Structure formats: structure tokens, C-alpha cells
Please model this.
Amino acid sequence: MAESAQPATGRAGASRSKVLTSYDPRTGEVVGEYASMGAGELTRTVRSARSAEQWWAALGFDARKRWLLDWKRALARGTRDLVELISSETGKPRLDAAIEVTLAVEHLDWVARHAERTLGRTTRLRASLRREPTGTVGHLPLGVIGVLGPWHNPVLTPMNSIAGAMAAGNAVVFKPSELTPGVGAWLADTWNELAPNQPVLQVVTGDSATAAALCRTRLDKLAYAGSGAGAREIATLAAQSSTPLIVERGGRGAMVVQVDAKLDTAAAAAVYGAMANSGQQPAGVRCVYVADSVYEPFLELVAGQAKRLRPGADRRAAYGPMILESQIEVVRRQVRDAITRGGRPVVGGLESIREPYIEPIVLTEVPEVSTAITGAAVGPMLVIQRVATMDEAAERLNAAERPPTVAVFTRDVRSVPEFAGRLRSELITVNSTPVYGVNGPGRIRDPQSLREFTRSQTITERHPSDQITSGTFDKHPRRLRVARALFRLRHRV
Model:
């Protein structure tokens, strides 16, 4: 089904089983077993969430802030256990898992402290010569929010929606990926320990059938982070119950290295953006366009850094295994397609694929039509392309069906807006590569992550001097003459 609810084609077990088994992709060992919930259980879960939401919304911003900060402290105290669980269910190195947990905790802290400032009632001013107040605007919770989480960042990405929805006054029903059910259950358990009688956050576990059932359940909004194909399927299911949907689409982007860039910094960012978490990040780098005059030294720097990386299950490994077996074959097809079309391997190649691990792969001179560039970026593979000018780089970036996030590396920061103006991309970063929580899924410290889970409410006041829109048939002639005179004066009639 969706990326957040993959059918059992990997290590997640049979899709219709009563028990959902979580496996360590590094060893195949069982991490835990969880219920595979059906429609009846989901209906009961949402019903209890509605009851809890009434209590939670009535608390107000200040009280919710205290609860959320208590939850944040509980997550922070349990960091060691959560990091170990993430590493076991995804195969991530503990350092990467620790970075993810740290950012998730920081985001929860930010949301708790900024919810009232972002969503609290504000005064609207009259658009006239005298700016008197005419009313207020506030943001009220929607009710019960369903969150479908991905497996690649099983804490940070869903926390963007969970924290925002809860801070806004909603209850949340969270469906983690069937590959990482233990992480989702751990998050809900920490909340339940704080408020055992108020299920403001609940987790439902299961496979794609459970995710589909959640989409059909009577919710006030759904939040999904994942692939475009998954988003389309979720949208179809949500439409059956007329449930509003917010989608955070991921996807590794591109990098542009200009002639004056710090090459060692750019090379390090490119390698990390492509190889971190075995290239399974929802953001990062898949293709680098390098100015012709610095292409050779940049390629040499990238190759040197990539050759030093080693995948594995031990603490010294740079990254872990591919969590989905199906994606190993995707990487194999892309590498084969790139080489067949004339691409040149610089580091690794088909021989780098040693299931469940893939060693670093760096390619260059790859035709833009190759699936290594146009297909889904799912493995530790990086494509380096030479461009004669920045105009050529912009042309290639704009040719993509979906404009990618672009990281621009240059010393001349003031020139970036002019270059960015030629791109169709929505997000441009300067001298940094978005990997965690900067764009797409898992955006952190973004006020929009709060507003998405509210409905705005405006309270207006009738102003005594407004004779034209007073709402009565009693229009005093003298005041109408004054109003017409003011109209002519303001609009130069």
C-alpha cells in the first residue's frame, strides 16, 4: 500500500496475520510481536479518542503546554531505550537514531512553547484611516487526527504531525509502519504513563489493511508522509469518508556546486546526503551538478570519502542495511540502466550490492533519462554530473517532472536568490544539505505544522461609524453623504 504501510513484501510477515511481527533487518531476529488491528478495534480507538479530545481541548494552551513538556522530558529520559529500538527495527546506526530522537524531542519542545503564540486569538484591525479593532481571529482544534508514519524516520517524521496536532488541542491516533510498530507503541506508552485515563495519543498497529481501515474511519483529518504513489492511494481511501488529508512527500533532491564553492565541504555534504541511512532518507541528495572547472577535484573528493564508508551491523559501520528487500532490486536496476546507457562507475557498481547491504556507489556521465536520475532514490547511490554553466544546471533541474529540493554550494551567498529565481523548486538551501526535518516530511519548528490541525474562527464586531454596511434599512442621509465624500477622497473619484 503506502510507504507508511507497506504490504508484507519485506520482513514484516504475512499481511493478513492476527499478529504483526517486527524483525531486525540486520539479523532477521524477532524484535517484537504486536496485534494486527481490524476495523472494529479502530472504531473503538477513535471513539475513546473523541472523549479524550474534549478534555484535552478544554484545558487551553497553558495547561497543554505543561503536559507536552512533561511528555518531552519522559521521551528525553528514555532516549537510550528509544535509540536502541529504532536501531533494531530499522538497522540504523545508533548515532543516526540518536540524531533523529534528539530532533524529535527538540521539535516537541518548540511546539509546546509556541502553540499559543501561533494559534492564540489575535485582534483584527479596521482597514481605514483609523485602524480600530473590528474583531479577533483564533484557531480551534479539529478533533481526532489520524497519523500514518513511515519506517525510514519512524520518530521524527510522525512527531511533526503528532506534536502539532496535540499542541493544537486534538487527539491523535497513530498508525506506525508495520516495519516499525515497536517505535510507535513506545511513543504511545510514554504518553499513557503520564495520563493513563486520557488517551489523547493512541497507537494502532497492523499492516496495509489496518492503514486502509484507519483511512475509512471517521476522522477529522489524516496526515501522511511518504511516496507519491502512497499519497495517491491514501487520498483515494480518505475520499471515501470525505476526510481532509495533509501529505508530506519526501524525496532526495539535487546539489549545485558552483566554481567558488568550498569543495571539501560540498563533497562531505553530498556523500552524507546520499549515503546516510543507506540512502533511505526522505530528504538528501541523489544528483550533483558541478561547474566544469571544479568537476575533477570535486569528483576526486567525493570518491575518496565514499570509499571510506562501510555498511554493517556493528558500531563502526557508517550505515545499516536496506530495510526493504524490494528496494535492493530497485537499486540494482538503476545501476544497470545507468551503466548500459553510458554512465561511468567511479566508486562501486553492481558488485556493491550484497544483500541486505549495499556499499557506496558513485556514478558520473549518466544520461538524464536514466532511471538512476528519474526513478525513486532508495539506496546509497550518488550521481555526479558535469555542467558547463549554471544555466545548464538550472535547465536540467527544471526538466524534472517534480522539481527537487536544491542545495547550492557557493561562497557568493548573495548570488543565490538570482539563481534560485530560475528554478521551479520550492526549497533552496545554501551550503547545507537537507537531511533531517528541513523540508518535506518531518519539518521541524514550522508554524504551519500547528495550523494544519486547526480551523480558524473569526469573531467580528459592528463598528458604530460604518453607515454603509450597518445591517439595517435605517440609513441616515447626512451620514451617507459623508461616506460618499470619504469614498471619493480615498479613491480619487
Notes: The longest helix spans residues 94-119. Residues 1-17, 438-442 have pLDDT under 50 and may be disordered.
